[in-house]
Amino acid sequence: MSALLPLAGKRGLVTGIANADSIAWGCAKAFHALGAELAVTYLNDKALRHVEPLARQVEAPLLLPLDLMRDGELEAVFDTVANEWGQLDFVLHSIAFAPRDDLHGRVTDCSRAGFLQAMDVSCWSFIRMAKLAEPLMRNGGTLFCMSYYGSQMVVEHYNMMGPVKAALESATRYLAAELGPQGIRVHAISPGPLKTRAASGIAEFDALLDRAQAKAPTRSLVSIDDVGEATAWLATDAARRMTGQTIYIDGGYHIID
Ligand SMILES: NC(=O)c1ccc[n+]([C@@H]2O[C@H](COP(=O)([O-])OP(=O)(O)OC[C@H]3O[C@@H](n4cnc5c(N)ncnc54)[C@H](O)[C@@H]3O)[C@@H](O)[C@H]2O)c1
Predict the structure, then answer these.
(1) Which atom of ligand 1 is nearest to the CA of 195?
(2) How far apart are CA 202 and CA 208, in angstroms?
(3) Which end of the chain is more exposed for a tag (fewer CB within 10 A), N or C?
(4) Which residues line the pocket of ligand 1, CB cutoff 6 A?
């Protein structure tokens, strides 16, 4: 890989690829295009069929199982990375889950179990990843998670994921403050709506897409490549003085009343 590429010689862990529509896939392509070497995770054997060809496309030398609900799997991923590479330069957390009944109801009515599971998989796991990544980021690094505007404003049908993403963005700021002295930067990426498998769990998602396109100053929806290219740039040295932010990649939607 050419040393002229800004991520040449860098190694990153990419979680959250389910298929070629996944935001994590847009990011993986962009990290690879800038010269990075990738470790890619897949949820389970069923997902492996879809993820394996994509991992091959970005020449990922490591393809590892990761279901955050299974004890020890996240630790095993980091153990493998430590054994194979001994260091890590960036981590992408692109994972969210909420039980359907809770997601489709009012926040007021959500169950304790559903709320805690959504927090566990979608937020707490990012903090766990930061802890496991810290000792491997001896030369500094960048941690990314994926958020959404529904953390800041009440977005119809986003429901319980709103408070979960708000916690994720706040965790991003605290992690950035704590890990910054070691040269580890932390960002929440906040893309506009994208038609992915996770998005299919949100009611009336097509109306959300229409609204996003009509209201965004760019009058366009974002693609996974738009999100990936901006995210990959944030992993480069050119972005070395940026940390702790929620970065909107939404055609400017969030500035409009
Ligand atoms: N699609 C959108 O409109 C949109 C907008 C803003 C933010 N996001 C966020 O982007 C991220 C990625 O979602 P996406 O839209 O690309 O959908 P996606 O369905 O392609 O990705 C979600 C990923 O989460 C993984 N996942 C779920 N439960 C898991 C578990 N227990 N262990 C490990 N992995 C698990 C799935 O396997 C999948 O790869 C999520 O955090 C989502 O909230 C999505």
Answers:
(1) 1
(2) 10
(3) C
(4) 16-18, 21-24, 43, 47, 66-69, 94-97, 121, 146, 148, 191, 193-194, 196-199
DSSP, residue by residue, 144-198: EEE--GGGTS--TTTTTHHHHHHHHHHHHHHHHHHHGGGTEEEEEEEEPP---TG
- Best probe residue, ligand 1, of 15, 19, 22 (max atoms within 8 Å of C-beta): 22
- Using CA atoms, how far apart are residues 176 and 102, in angstroms rounded to an integer? 31
Q: Which atom of ligand 1 is nearest to the CA of 24?
A: 16
Selected catalytic residue, list 42, 149, 158, 253: 158
Nearest to 146 by CA among 39, 45, 247, 41: 247
> Among this protein's residues, is 253 annotated catalytic?
no
Does residue 148 have an active-site annotation?
yes
Could you tell me the CA-to-CA distances from 195 to 40, 46, 185, 189 in Å, in that order?
22, 21, 29, 17
The answer to whether the beta carbons of residues 222 and 192 sit under 8 Å apart is yes
CA of 4 to the centre of ligand 1 (A): 32
Q: What is the DSSP letter of 105?
A: S
Identify the burial level of 43 via C-beta atoms within 10 angstroms of its C-beta, where 0-12 means exposed, 13-18 middle and 19 or more buried.
buried
